[in-house]
Amino acid sequence: xxxxxxxxxxxxxxxxxxxxxxxxxxxxxxxxxxxxxxxxxxxxxxxxxxxxxxxxxxxxxxxxxxxxxxxxxxxxxxxxxxxxxxxxxxxxxxxxxxxxxxxxxxxxxxxxxxxxxxxxxxxxxxxxxxxxxxxxxxxxxxxxxxxxxxxxxxxxxxxxxxxxxxxxxxxxxxxxxxxxxxxxxxxxxxxxxxxxxxxxxxxxxxxxxxxxxxxxxxxxxxxxxxxxxxxxxxxxxxxxxxxxxxxxxxxxxxxxxxxxxxxxxxxxxxxxxxxxxxxxxxxxxxxxxxxxxxxxxxxxxxxxxxxxxxxxxxxxxxxxxxxxxx
Length: 326
Hints:
Elements: H1 3-19, H2 27-32, E1 45-51, E2 57-60, E3 63-67, E4 73-80, E5 84-89, E6 96-100, E7 106-109, H3 118-128, H4 134-147, H5 152-164, H6 168-181, H7 186-198, H8 202-215, H9 221-240, H10 244-255, H11 258-265, H12 269-284, H13 288-301, H14 308-325
Parallel strand pairs: 1-7
Antiparallel strand pairs: 1-4, 2-3, 2-5, 5-6
Helix pairs in contact: 1-12, 3-4, 4-5, 5-6, 5-7, 6-7, 7-8, 7-9, 8-9, 9-10, 9-11, 11-12, 12-13, 13-14
């Protein structure tokens, strides 16, 4: 494998580890992974086109799928059958959530209405500034909360910013307030898991991730990803200490959660990186055939992504290593 390809991959891994929660131990996930192939099964999917305001952010089942273009359109591929929830937010407009019915396909029009709600506007600005200015974003979340004390999403946004500012205590308090505003808030529990993980409170981190999965009724990709990465990192630490037995045990634990994370992230940019992490764990365990199945599934699902050439090089490398072992 080319060194530059590995460097790029490692950079993406660090970004995912920091942002997700990319980022998962329940009976649901264990039973879901009992399959013959390494990669998740391919299900029948459809494509929809969202038509709304320009530059609007669009979520499908609380997973961001992109932003509409200047014409107000966004094409979403790989939408599984069944009911889904669409959420659309555009700056200056009231956020809208609506159901996507199983029979709906093609164009889906979502009308937004202008808002003068100062709490909503402050929240929207805070979300927009999260990457550019953490301090300004924090101030705007706090403003939104002062105007609407039970603004669950603003409390959660504040928790994320405080976490990135290494204020674990403040972040946990924000999570607590988010839960007061919205009981059984799965996303809040997933972020809580990240806080505890970075604070090296491992038992609490696992409990929070599991709680998120329960609150989400089995659907919480951030928590599944978080657990997958948690055990992957435990394996790497064990290996660095020469504890090769536990290294393999922890890698095996992480493999229980990657398929659910990928399945639930299907169609989102995060799934691209999680696929590669999944295959990498199989490589670390020297399960090369399983790693190749994951990479080949990746190429079938997202053949045109910029990462495809790197994944093809992974497959070439694995084939060479397998032939050398024979």
